[in-house]
Structure formats: C-alpha cells, structure tokens
Design goal:
Layout: E1 22-27, H1 31-41, E2 46-52, H2 59-63, E3 69-72, H3 79-88, E4 92-96, H4 103-116, E5 120-123, H5 130-140, E6 147-157, H6 165-180, E7 186-194, E8 198-205, E9 208-214, E10 216-228, E11 231-235, E12 243-248, E13 261-266, H7 273-285, H8 293-307
Parallel strand pairs: 1-2, 1-3, 3-4, 4-5, 6-9
Antiparallel strand pairs: 6-10, 7-8, 8-9, 10-11, 11-12, 12-13
Helix pairs in contact: 3-4, 4-8, 6-8
Length: about 300
C-alpha cells in the first residue's frame, strides 16, 4: 500500500489570534490524509508547503528549515521511520495512530522528542470528542457515583488488509477507555471471533468491561457505555443526541417502566474532530497541553502483547 492509499491521520501547528502562519508538510494524502489536507488548506493559520505521496522526495521536507511541523498520515508500518526522521530533523509531529508497532520504538521517539524539545502527539480522534470530554467531566464530578464497568465498540465493514482489527479499531477504543480509567491499572485479554478481523478485548482491574471491534459488520456501530453507581452514560456519534446521561435508582425487582429515571441529552457536532485535534496539537506546541506520548506507548504495549 502506498502512502497515498493510506487510512492515516495527523495534524499541524495551529496558530491563533495575531500569531504568524506556520509552514507545514503532510505526508500521506490518501483516504484520511486528503481529509486532513482540506482542513489545513481551509485554515488561515497554516501554509501547507508540501503534500507528499509515495513518490515525493522527503529530503525536501527534512532540509527545509521553513517547515516547522509534519503531519504523518501514512500506512501504519511506516509511522516509526517517518516520525523519527521528522523529529531528528527538528520538526514537531502529529502522527496518525498508532505511533509505532513496538513499544520500544514509541519510547525511542519519546526520548528524541524530549531531547530536542519537540511536540510529539498522536491523533486518537475520539479523545478530542466534545461529547466524550463532557462524559469524562460528568464522571469526574461524581454526578453518577463511581464507575462500575464499561462497554466499548466500533464495528463496520472493511478495511481488510495486512493490519488486524486491533491496530485499526481497538487502538481507538483503548484511547477512549483511558479517559475513564488509566490503562496502566487494567489487565487485558484477547479473544478472536474471526481471526484478525473481529474480536473482543476483556479488561479487569480498577474497572471491568470489554471492547468489541469488527471489520465484518455490514452496518456501522460506534458506542461507549459507562455504567455507574447511579446511572449510565451512552456515547453514540452516529445519532443527533451524541451523549445521553440517564440517572436512576435501583429498587428491587422493579421493571424498567416503573423505575424513576432522569435523562439529559447533549447534541455535539462530531463531524469536525480533526479540527479539535489540530487545536490540541497547537496547545502542545505552545506548552498549554502535554503531548499524549505516554498514552501512545501504553496502547502499543497492550496490542503488541497480543502478538507475542
């Protein structure tokens, strides 16, 4: 698969207010890269100097001192080398997930970025969701009591290829899970329903639950359920009310229709989270936010463990 055939993701230094425009390069202009390209081109804070396909000579990017940051939206197995080259040449980087296929590679990239004082951010798109950020706030504020368990799922038909469903989809849901419970506090086990294409990740520890992912689902489903002491939160980006928060008591042996419930719904626009990713990366650049490199390392550790 060439760079311009990839399902990639990344971002660029976003400048706000009266600050100067920033020159950037995009590596990978396929399915996802082309989406990123439009966002960058339509944003007055950026000058997109290079949009690089598989035939582009990347030395032009590395040698160009005007390029301050690089967006990596290339195939998964090219991330490590491209990100490393960008960092070694003094560029801030936002990479499509996963950052690398080996935890030791992620740690090496972290070390290089820290040594050179560069921002290294991975674009886990759901973590920038306003709906999920609201859900996280509700949980942290204790409105529904302690979290008891979670169910997360992302399922659709395709994209079949040399990367399994865990790298393609489970990495997304692991990043969401971390919003509600640090991944380091959990133990994980994998069950393939269809080898490399449909599976379940069970987790146990501070909370319990499961992640269901599939490339064999002829419909489309993305859902996060957070079960709490006093109610349940439901996230679904494919409906108008992207976040539903239902609080209820638990009287014994009472049917659903007779259980007192209160529901609050929120309609967030989930169609432009790429823009939020750009804003997050900007905050990392200017020191308002810490890059999510530790999350990237942890997710790669979990999925890599399955293959050993």
């Amino acid at each position: 698969m060439s760079l311009d055939e990839t399902f990639g993701n990344a971002s660029m230094k976003l400048i706000v207010g009266d600050s100067e425009r920033v020159t950037c390069a995009l590596i990978g202009v396929g399915y996802w890269g082309s989406k990123l390209k439009k966002y960058i081109e339509n944003d007055g804070s950026f000058d997109l100097k290079y949009a690089c396909d598989s035939k582009f000579d990347l030395n032009k990017v590395w040698d160009d001192e005007a390029v301050e940051a690089v967006i990596v939206a290339s195939p998964i197995d090219t991330h490590y080398e491209l990100v490393k080259s960008a960092l070694l040449n003094g560029k801030h980087v936002l990479s499509e997930k996963p950052l690398a296929l080996k935890a030791e590679q992620c740690l090496e990239l972290k070390q290089i970025a820290e040594k050179k004082g560069l921002a290294l951010h991975t674009e886990y798109i759901y973590t920038f969701s306003k709906a999920l950020q609201k859900a996280k706030q509700i949980v942290e504020d204790g409105e529904l009591g302690d979290v008891l368990g979670l169910e997360l799922s992302v399922k659709h038909l395709g994209r079949f290829g040399r990367f399994d469903v865990y790298w393609l989809l489970a990495s997304h849901m692991l990043s969401v899970l971390d919003m509600f419970c640090p991944l380091s506090k959990l133990d994980f086990s994998f069950v393939d329903l269809v080898e490399n294409e449909t599976g379940i990740i069970f987790f146990d520890g501070a909370v319990k639950g499961q992640i269901c992912v599939s490339l064999n689902y002829p419909w489309k489903e993305t859902e996060v359920l957070v079960y709490c002491e006093k109610g349940t939160l439901r996230y679904n980006p494919n409906v108008q009310s992207t976040l539903s928060v239902i609080s209820y008591s638990k009287p014994k042996w009472t049917v659903s229709a007779k259980i007192p419930k209160q529901e609050q719904t929120y309609a967030f626009d989930e169609g432009h989270n790429i823009r939020l990713a750009l804003s997050s990366f900007h905050d990392c650049i200017v020191g308002k936010e810490n890059p999510n490199i530790d999350l990237a390392v942890e997710i790669t550790k979990i999925i890599e463990r399955r293959t050993k």
